[in-house]
Amino acid sequence: MRVLLVGSGGREHALATCLARSPQLTALYAAPGNPGIASVGTLVDIKADDVPALITFAKAKKIDLIVPGPEAPLVVGLADACAEAGIPCAGPSQAAAALEGSKAFTKEVADAAGIPTARWERFEDEDAAIAFVRLRGAPIVVKADGLAGGKGVVVAQSIPEAEDAIRRLGMPLVIEECLVGSEVSLFAFCSGEKAVLIGAARDHKRLGDGDTGPNTGGMGAISPPPDFDADAQEKALDISVRPMLAEMVRRGTPFRGVIFAGLMLTDQGPKLIEYNVRFGDPEAQALLIRLDSDLLPILAALARGELDNASATFTNDASISLVLAAKGYPDAPKAGGRITGIDRAEAVPGVSVFHAGTKLTNNVLVAAGGRVLTVCAKAQTPEEARHRAYEGAKAIQWEDKIFRNDIGK
């Protein structure tokens, strides 16, 4: 099969690594990709959300399957353009991708499907939003209604913090009650009303140790979460995913692709925080290093809507992904530092390093983004996986490298 992978982050490098292992693969292209993906595929200088250019390239290269990594191309209609061109795509339509593109849409679907979630209101007027948080009090959660790269959510611990978030994020907004519990990320392959469990992870969103500092796209993840076993994951699919799929079918916008349900494990059971319509980052890296199955035929079956025989099997290892970011992330990351030591890191047993914000300048690998690399490790125990990941992280050097010291503790 000839495959076009769309995206350029650590998630896409992990996907590319899995796809490259498939005996069914004959050619792998990545648009735009990154220097890590270049070791297993051919990079194409097309932006991930340039849908017309992606389709033109796919036709010219006789692509058999398009695998979208990030959410942006899906929200602007990549899967719809693929359907029109007759190219299988392992992702949802633009209408179904609104599950991630609009927080309010997700809430409406959840309410209609009877899915437990936080009480919420949507606002298009700043004064009305501020009046609402003053009435409800804190803690309270303020969310940008559209895409924000994982950085559009503020869990405000005070009214002034909530008001600042309202002014900074702008309209429209969703404001909701603050759920209490432990957060998990649940993943499944979906088509129509059918959902096949992939697995679960726990992301660490805050920039600093002890869950301090601003929200980010994610600073690390563990898989599987110790308090969310396979039985609990299947039950959560019944509560939070399968009712959504049925509601989307009822609305005439069936979902096909990878669903990522962000859940809070509360005293009353799992409650939905949000949906994402693709693998998470850095959760994908922690999940995919444990994958035993051939990913390519699963994604191909998903793209055809033939999930009946699709299943993913994973090792029993524990895994961890640790994001190495650039100083100044998430607001103003410093770029340009020369990166060394990736080979030393990958010499540690069980360690894989995935590129995200990197580029080659005069054949020298340099930092070129906020989240620069993801160091991943697997082992028989969470403690050993954590030890290996941090040993790998310390082997990698560049000016302005930062990372959390408590992922997986």
TrEMBL record:
Coiled-coil region list: none
SMART domains the record matches: GARS_A, GARS_C
Pathway annotation: Purine metabolism; IMP biosynthesis via de novo pathway; N(1)-(5-phospho-D-ribosyl)glycinamide from 5-phospho-alpha-D-ribose 1-diphosphate: step 2/2
GO biological process, one term: 'de novo' IMP biosynthetic process
Documented EC number(s): 6.3.4.13
Chain ranges of the ATP-grasp domain: 107-304
Presence of keyword Metal-binding: no
Keywords: ATP-binding, Ligase, Nucleotide-binding, Purine biosynthesis
Family: Belongs to the GARS family.
Name of the protein in its database record: Phosphoribosylamine--glycine ligase
